Each structure stands twice: as structure tokens, then as C-alpha cells.
Amino acid sequence: MPKKVYFEDINVGDAMPELKKGPVQKLQHVMYAGASGDFNPLHTDDDFAKAVGMDGVIAHGMLIMGSVGQAITSWIPKKHIKKFGVRFSGMTKPGSTIIITGTVTNKRIEAGKNIITCEVTAKDEQGDVKVTGSFEAALPSKG
Amino acid sequence: MADKSKQGKEYPPMVWEVERGKIRELVRAIGDFDPVWVDKEVATKEGYKDCPAPPTFLTVPMMWCGSMPQVINDLKINFAMVLHGEEEYEYYQEIYPGNVITGRPIITKVEEKTSKSGRKMDMVTMEIDYTNQKGEKVAKARSLLVERK
């Protein structure tokens, strides 16, 4: 479904549409390991995870970042995204439901481009923060 | 102690051909069913030349080419104690299936920090500049690795 988002339609304080993902499954960790090539057994092998002091496997941080990316691009097409960064602040265990939200924090014209900055957060249902970050997009103008 | 002598070290370029199937695998694993990633017709209607690589796709060449493991080994980081602290991308143009991209990894920062609880941590920042087969810049990735001591 083609999406059109214009600079004029977005304002500071606007909320990014919320995306609820999950529950994250161990099978998804295996799929993500194969897709991404990150075979750290901490994500797929409970015995290994326990041996290094965890309760069990945890999701790849990049899987959660990927979900945040999904939340962004289901709102603003990929072609407009110029920058996307996150900090991984909490581990995600299988069975967690991840809720991704965002707020537009800045809107400006820079070197002739219509730039917005949006802060994003991924939390679980208990409110534990998994990822915080932001993205910048250069949007078309209705002109 | 963090090995500061590695700051500025460049690693051999990695070359990666972007496959349509690899994009499909990644979005399937994420659970992102937007057809733009997998259906060329949908993608072209939305103004792309083909299915674009999703925002976190560059993790695929980084991990499959072994750049991250190479850095972890070279810096003698304990694999079991390493955490991914941060990841950031800058996008200059789309990456499409069939593109051959080259990534040039460099260690930009090595530092030791102490957490609030008094625990020592080594922080390593790696940047990778990506170009396509025409030599055009397509993206930059920045990764922060944290080794708990």
C-alpha cells in the first residue's frame, strides 16, 4: 500500500503510530540468527546462556531494532529515512511482547531539505525499556 | 584494559552481493510483512527501483562477512561477555537486490569506562562505510560494543 507522508502534515509532539510485536518466540531467535548471521549461542542455546549466568536465551538486540525499524517504515517510507540509531538498554526474553512508540521532537528545513527528528522507544508490557533511539527523515513537501 | 593502540585500525574490506532471498529472510525473522521488501511490483509503485533493503539490513553483511567477529577476536574481547551497546545507520541511497556492496570497517574509538556499580567496561566503536558497485556511498554503520569485565 503506497504511503504518502508530507512535511506539512507532521508536527513536533506528534506520535508515531504504535506497533505491538510479539510475543517474541525462541524460534524467531533461530530465524534471526540464520538471516543475520549472528550465531552467538546466547540467543539460541539455553544451556550456553545459563553457563554465562543468564536465566536462558535472550533475543538479539538487532531483532528488536529491526522491529523498531518496522514501526518506522510502516509510518514513513524507507526512502525518506536518513538516519536511524538506537541504544540497547534491556534484554528481551522469549515470550515478551514489545510495544514500540515514538514522538516527533524536531522539525526543520536544513540545506533545502525538510527534516524531522523522531525519538523512539521499545518497551515490554511491564514497561521495561529495551531500546531507545531516534531517526531522522527528509520528507517531501506538498509544495 | 582496553587496547587503545587499535584505535584507528582499519580492517580488510568486505564485499557482499545483496540477495533478494536474504532480504526476505531478514524481514520474515523480524515479522515485518510489508510487501515492499519482497514484491518488486509493490516496491516500484512506491517509487523504488526494486525491493529496498530494510533499515537494519546492513547487519547481514557485517555478521556474515565476519567483520564483527574479526574485530572481537582482534581486540581479544571475551565473546561471552560482549554486549551490543548501540547501533546507528546513516542512509545515502537505497540498497537493492543485485547490488554488490563493499564495507570498510574501522575502529574509531576504544575506551574504558566504569559503570555506576563500579564495574569496569571496555567500549569499542566500529564504523563501516559502505559503497556500491559504482563506488557510490550508500550508507554508514556505527556499532558500539561493550565488554563487561
Task: Kindly list the characteristics that best describe this protein.
heterodimer; A: 143 residues; alpha+beta; Thiol Ester Dehydrase, Chain A; 5 strands; 21% helix; B: 149 residues; 5-stranded antiparallel beta sheet; 4 helices
CATH architecture of chain A: Roll
Shape of chain B: elongated
The SSE string of chain B, one letter per element, is: EHHHHEEEE
CATH architecture of chain B: Roll
What is the number of helices of chain B? 4
- Assembly status: heterodimer
Biggest sheet features of chain A = 5 strands, antiparallel
> Termini distance of chain A?
23 Å
For the residues shown, what is the average pLDDT of chain B? 93
The overall average pLDDT of chain A, rounded, is 95
The tally of strands of chain A reads 5
CATH class of chain A: Alpha Beta
Verbal overview:
The complex is a heterodimer of chains A (about 140) and B (about 150). The longest helix of chain A has 13 residues, at about 60-75. Chain A has a single domain, classed as Thiol Ester Dehydrase, Chain A, CATH 3.10.129. Chain A has a five-stranded antiparallel beta sheet, covered by helices on one side. Chain A has about 140 residues and is of the alpha+beta class. In chain A, strand 4 (about 115-125) and strand 5 (about 130-140) form a beta hairpin. In chain A, about 20% of the residues lie in helices and about 35% in strands. Chain A has helices spanning about 25-35, 45-50, 60-75; strands at about 15-20, 80-90, 100-110, 115-125, 130-140. Chain B has about 150 residues and is an alpha+beta fold. Helices cover about 20% and strands about 35% of the residues of chain B. Chain B has four helices and five strands. Chain B has a five-stranded antiparallel beta sheet with strand order 1-3-4-5-2, with no helix packed on it. In chain B, a hairpin with a 5-residue loop joins strand 3 (about 100-115) and strand 4. The radius of gyration of chain B is 17 Å and the shape is elongated. The N and C termini of chain B lie close together (about 10 Å). The mean pLDDT of chain B is about 95. The interface between A and B is large, with 36 and 38 residues.
